[in-house]
Amino acid sequence: MKAEAIRPDWPAPARVRACMTTRIGGVSRAPWSSFNLGDHVGDDSAHVAANRAHLREMLPAEPPWLTQVHGTRVAELGRDKDFQADAVVARAAGQVCAVLTADCLPVLFCDRGGSVVAAAHAGWRGLAAGVLEATVSAMRVPPGEILVWMGAAIGPQAFEVGDEVREAFVAQHAGAAAAFAPHAPGKWLADIYALARLRLGAAGVHAVHGGGRCTFGEADTFFSYRRDGVTGRMAALVWLE
Questions:
Q1: CATH number at residue 28
Q2: What are the tens digits of pLDDT across the range 42-70?
Q3: Is the model's pLDDT at 3 over the cut of 90?
Q4: Count of domains in the chain?
Q5: Residue 91, domain extent
Q6: Of 81, 85, 151, 192, which sits 20 to 30 A from 214 (CA to CA)?
Q7: In percent, how much of the chain has pLDDT > 70?
Q8: 3-state SS string over the chain?
């Protein structure tokens, strides 16, 4: 079965290429079935390697796989050797930026001139800490020239969080309160897409696309850590031709 991928619906320049993988089309067995790209989730390493080799056939180069720690560090391809980071930026053709997710928000970036691309992994901790703002800064172009596409993440009907998560966002942006719906005593349903749009807008980035899928609810299409616990990872990737 051929791996299925989502193509971003955004007005990116012609030389910008991007996609997000789904769980469909790989060789991994349950509970990682089937196109798992994460090598840190307990899956057979040979299956992960086969899935990554299949992905490589769709790409101009092997992406450096980040060690993601829910932080704000941005690695730059062609310059950095340390890939413990939660975002990555590239300026040369053929360099592939990639992040892995299974409920966290994958965010892809490019500029209108097609000179730089980036990918960021934004769980709530990284989002609150400023990983998207750090990525915008690392691109070194005017924020108004940046286009963003948000890939599939846990949707606002499924993302239950505690008071401490809401307070972390509202303390920084009063408008963040609108992204939390009361759910139970001390519990809220959070809209990670709305939070990302708010923070990107505050950073001067307003051309934001995507953000309509739910990893938790679409079990046949996406991995979800919140839903399944032991599960695989999808990749969101962007590069310049």
A1: 3.60.140.10
A2: 999 999 999 999 999 999 999 999 999 99
A3: no
A4: 1
A5: 5-240
A6: 85
A7: 100
A8: CCCCEECCCCCCCCCEEEEEECCCCCCCCCCCCCCCCCCCCCCCHHHHHHHHHHHHCCCCCCCCCCECCCCCCEEECCCCCCCECCEEEECCCCCEEEEEECCCEEEEEEECCCCCEEEEEECHHHHHHCHHHHHHHHHCCCHHHEEEEECCECCCCCCEEEHHHHHHHHCCCHHHHHHEEEEECCEEEECHHHHHHHHHHHCCCCEEEECCCECCCCCCCCCCHHHHCCCCCEEEEEEEC
